[in-house]
TrEMBL record:
Gene: menA
Major site of localization recorded for this protein: membrane
Sorted UniProt keywords: Cell membrane, Membrane, Menaquinone biosynthesis, Transferase, Transmembrane, Transmembrane helix
Annotated Gene3D superfamilies: UbiA prenyltransferase
Protein family (similarity comment): Belongs to the MenA family. Type 1 subfamily.
Record's protein name: 1,4-dihydroxy-2-naphthoate octaprenyltransferase
GO molecular function terms listed in the Swiss-Prot or TrEMBL record: 1,4-dihydroxy-2-naphthoate polyprenyltransferase activity
Length: 309
């Protein structure tokens, strides 16, 4: 059981939950302004679905990189990769991926049934398709003949699914509507998710070059990938400020939502620290830190908007 828990990589879970929290509580604030009802069952099921997706993704990545030999000489994290280290066989991990895929789909259907049935049948089927796309994206990063993670497309997919789909999708589950300003916090979460992936790929840049895994970080080179990282860590907090000002909280004298701006300081310190790193393997601790800061951004936004309600 210990090896399965390690393979699930629990430190990635706060990042995956951030988009759901952000979208759900922005929806809660907006529904309160319109006299709508916020369904807590949707929130709980959405969290469950996201957890299944994340663990599925981690298992699939472990399996895909393991059978391709990518993890053979990985720096810093090789011990935690179950298939590469032989702690879990490739067959066992493949079966776990299949099981998680089924559980993810069942949980997705349950979530969409509660959210849309019987009054929004068209949306139910659209989101079923979106759920299947999420499952395929979780698996396709490293699994298959042409995994998109090996072609440098991981950043784009992470932005779409961890940012746009997660935040905008969860928002729609509650409101049954789409407001264009939700794209702003969705982009903020998406960029921070890209920042985590880029740090991961910068850390593994030497091993990925040896194994033929052409990530965006490898294509850019370490120095340019570092510039890219700093941009990804800078823009999200500015986007959140833009979202709050767009909705006119400052004009209404409502300053509680701006509590999220306190994250300017830890983000500033984090950027300065990362910029000093010269050895790729020393980047590993920062993955968790960026994930926690992303989670805090979602939670502080939720708390600030709740005070408005």
């Amino acid at each position: 059981m210990k090896h399965w828990i390690q393979a699930a990589r629990l430190r990635t879970l706060p990042l995956s939950l951030s988009g759901i929290i952000m979208g759900a509580f922005i929806a809660k604030w907006r529904l309160s302004q319109e006299g709508g009802i916020w369904d807590w069952r949707i929130f709980v099921l959405a969290l469950l679905v996201t957890l299944f997706y994340q663990v599925l993704s981690n298992f699939a990545n472990d399996y895909g990189d393991g059978v391709k030999g990518t993890d053979k000489n990985r720096i810093g994290e090789a011990e935690s990769r179950a298939v590469a280290s032989g702690k879990i066989t490739a067959t066992q991990m493949r079966n776990a991926v299949i099981l998680l895929s089924i559980l993810s789909f069942v949980a997705t259907v349950a979530l969409l049934y509660v959210a849309f049935y019987p009054t929004n049948i068209r949306e139910f089927w659209i989101f079923i398709g979106l759920g299947i796309a999420c499952i395929l994206a979780a698996i396709g990063y490293t699994v298959g003949k042409k995994p998109y993670g090996y072609m440098g497309l991981g950043d784009i997919f992470v932005f779409i699914f961890f940012g746009l789909v997660s935040v905008c999708g969860s928002y729609f589950l509650f409101t049954k509507s789409f407001d264009y300003d939700i794209l702003i916090p969705a982009s903020a979460i998406g960029m921070l998710s890209m920042a985590v992936l880029n740090l991961n790929n910068m850390r593994d840049i030497v091993n990925d070059e040896l194994s033929g895994k052409k990530t965006l970080a490898l294509r850019l080179g370490f120095k340019k990938a570092m510039v890219y990282e700093i941009i990804l860590l800078q823009l999200p907090i500015l986007l959140m400020l833009a979202f709050l000002m767009y909705n006119g909280f400052q004009e209404k004298g409502l300053y509680y939502p701006f509590i999220v701006m306190i994250l300017i300081f830890p983000f500033m310190k984090l950027r300065r620290t990362i910029m000093k790193i010269q050895e790729p393997k020393l980047l590993d601790p920062f993955l968790k830190q960026v994930g926690i800061l992303t989670f805090m951004m979602a939670v502080l936004t939720a708390v600030g908007l709740n005070f408005v309600n």
